[in-house]
UniProtKB/TrEMBL annotation:
The lineage of its organism: Eukaryota, Viridiplantae, Streptophyta, Embryophyta, Tracheophyta. The keyword Zinc does not apply. The keyword tRNA processing does not apply. This is SGNH hydrolase-type esterase domain-containing protein. Keywords: Hydrolase, Lipid degradation, Lipid metabolism. GO terms for molecular function: hydrolase activity, acting on ester bonds. It comes from the Eukaryota. SUPFAM superfamilies: SGNH hydrolase.
Length: 239
């Protein structure tokens, strides 16, 4: 069986198998070595994620080929919704967000002790974009998310990774290093453009490589065409 990499998160993960998505790019990158498995849930926050861990990652999953190589955990964009705005039902206080991330990491470590866990912070927020593309009716005329709030959750995510001794992608900081990031990286002030997806893909690949999970050292599934002798093709399948 091929090893797996699970992608666990909210809509930014759920959409990641779309055209140019970071999950699709990962699946293509590891196409002969790893099965990339999507577990994205649009609108979810860490409070809800903790409640469904047993359903998303049932214990039997670990018995069909060993521990996954890695799990990405990408939550915070919904937790950071402001509590007095139109998406208040998704808001999770910062302290609880911290606790929930630790609970998710602890669950995964207990389930799969050898699996590499990678946290990804929420992206930055373009508040003008959120006003142009509100999730629902917005009579207040104020964005339901702010970049300042997203930054606080991103900082907490990085701190949890440090505490749990696992790597993190600080997407909030990384994206804002690009010129005109609001339009280049975000299509609606929150969700990713193809450029934004490319940044996530490249950051995830870099972090996994830093942890020893590079394509160069992973075995491929079944003989490569270049390893098949044209004069005796079936010989390659006898090993």
């Amino acid at each position: 069986m091929r090893p797996k990499i699970y992608l666990f998160g909210d809509s930014i993960t759920e959409e990641s198998f779309g055209d140019g998505g970071w999950g699709a790019s990962l699946a293509n990158h590891f196409s002969r070595s790893v099965d990339v498995v999507l577990r994205g849930y649009s609108g979810y926050n860490t409070r809800w994620a903790v409640k469904v861990l047993d359903k998303v990652f049932p214990a039997v999953e670990g018995g069909d080929g060993g521990d996954p190589l890695a799990v990405t955990v990408f939550f915070g964009a919904n937790d950071a919704c402001l509590p007095d705005r139109c998406s208040a039902f998704q808001h999770v206080p910062l302290e609880e967000y911290n606790h929930n991330l630790i609970s998710i990491v602890s669950f995964l470590k207990k389930q799969w002790p050898r699996t590499q866990i990678l946290l990804i912070t929420p992206p930055p927020i373009d508040e003008d974009g959120r006003l142009r593309y509100p999730y629902t009716e917005n009579p207040s005329g104020q964005p339901e998310r702010t970049n300042e709030a997203a930054g606080a959750y991103a900082k907490t995510c990085v701190a949890v990774a440090r505490e749990c001794e696992i790597p993190a992608v600080d997407l909030w900081t990384k994206m804002q290093q690009f010129p005109d990031w609001e339009k280049a990286c975000l299509r609606d002030g929150l969700h990713l453009t193809q450029n934004g997806n490319k940044i996530v893909f490249e950051e995830v690949i870099t972090k996994l490589r830093d942890e020893g999970l590079s394509l160069e050292i992973l075995p491929v599934d079944l003989p490569l065409l270049t390893d098949i002798d044209p004069n005796d093709p079936l010989k390659a399948f006898q090993k």
